[in-house]
Design brief:
The protein is 43% helix and 1% strand. The protein is mainly alpha-helical and 368 residues long.
């Protein structure tokens, strides 16, 4: 498993729009669309705006990296794609006074490197954070695939390996706890890199491709297996996976739903490895989110806020956060989008029925 090394995305040919409200209900009071609306409204920092990439997977999955043919990247009108419209509104690069560019503390170009070659999350000092795995390698991979830069695509895979070497729980990091959300960040990032490498036409004849696919699959499986073996709290992963009797061991939705999203995506990308037992675990998380906690409070409030989460602004806070986590709400969207696509692919089940494999290669563009 991975632990948080300090204290601390990517827009993905068939274009189609899926109405989430017609697909599933998240909880007794909220729909997927209401959760997504809150996920759009809550962010105030650059890394939070980046997680709104979930909108692409929710509304336009065919052009995300999990679509059948994501490359070459299509030329689109942002006004017709909710994720792109949102990104265009928020991203300001090199604008006077802009505070959400690459230098906003979230890693930067020409950042320092760790001794093994890992690119630092920070620009001013070499630090390795779990979050980096979801922010940088997927961006490098997507850009490399679209520009047919094979060496850069390989580097995106190597960066995952470099980070794994340092952040594994067997190597003492700055943060000795096993942070569930950090495990979610990093494993989900590797899933995106894996999807790009598997689908990039430019990589099909690369001599390193097979090893990269095998390594990424194994590295993701390591994390998932460790997480699945961790003790739960009220049906959710604990904020710190190994804290069973301390203040940081409360069950929370961010790490739980991101890990479920990872499993649903891997069930499609690598179905021979991530079979029914993995899907069943993810389904249990999804069902928990659809219900209420031990005190009878719905996990999804009437306006679409999902609780309880780890406090995204005070990492040492031991009080479950209920005001609304930008990351947490987006992770819930990622989980439901992953489950829906897994059902369409024929590997997951709809609730109460058995899914049948769909052979329509344009399935995402035909769903209304």
């Amino acid at each position: 498993m991975l632990s948080n090394a300090a204290t601390f995305v990517l827009l993905g040919r068939y274009i189609g729009f899926i109405s989430p409200s017609k697909w599933c209900t998240v909880g007794a009071r909220g729909t997927t669309s209401s959760v997504a609306d809150i996920a759009k409204a809550l962010p105030a920092h650059s890394w939070e705006w980046g997680t709104a990439e979930a909108l692409l997977e929710l509304y336009n999955p065919a052009i995300s990296v999990f679509g059948d043919h994501p490359f070459p990247a299509p030329v689109l009108n942002p006004s017709t794609i909710p994720a792109l419209a949102y990104a265009q509104e928020k991203i300001m690069l090199n604008a006077p006074g802009a505070k959400n560019g690459l230098s906003d503390g979230d890693g930067a170009l020409n950042a320092p490197r760790w001794s093994n070659g890992a690119i630092s999350q920070r620009f001013d000092v070499a630090e390795l954070w779990d979050d980096f795995g979801y922010m940088s390698p997927p961006f490098l991979a997507y850009y490399a695939a679209d520009t047919r830069n094979i060496s850069l695509l390989e580097e995106s895979y190597k960066q995952c390996g470099y980070y794994r070497e340092v952040l594994q729980a067997t190597i003492p990091p700055q943060d000795l706890g096993l942070w569930s959300t950090g495990n979610g960040w990093f494993s989900a990032g590797m899933v995106r890199v894996l999807a790009v490498i598997q689908k990039a036409p430019a990589a099909t004849v690369s001599p390193w491709r097979a090893q990269a696919i095998a390594d990424l699959t194994q590295w993701i499986k390591e994390i998932v297996n460790g997480v699945m073996g961790a003790p739960m709290d009220d049906g959710l992963l604990r904020n710190y996976l190994d804290d069973t009797d301390g203040p940081n061991g409360f069950g929370e939705i961010s790490g739980s739903t991101m890990m479920a999203a990872v499993i649903y995506r891997m069930a499609v990308l690598q179905p021979d490895v991530f079979g029914t037992s993995y899907i069943a675990w993810a389904d249990n998380i999804r069902h928990t989110i659809s219900g209420s906690d031990r005190d009878g409070n719905p996990h999804v409030t009437s306006n679409g806020t999902v609780t309880p989460a780890v406090n995204p602004y005070a990492w040492l806070d031991t009080t479950p956060y209920t005001a609304g986590s930008p990351e947490g709400n987006n992770f819930v969207v990622l989980m439901y989008a992953g489950w829906r696509d897994c059902v369409y692919a024929g590997y997951c089940h709809t609730d109460g029925s058995r899914a049948k494999r769909l052979h329509n290669k344009k399935r995402h563009s035909s769903v209304q």
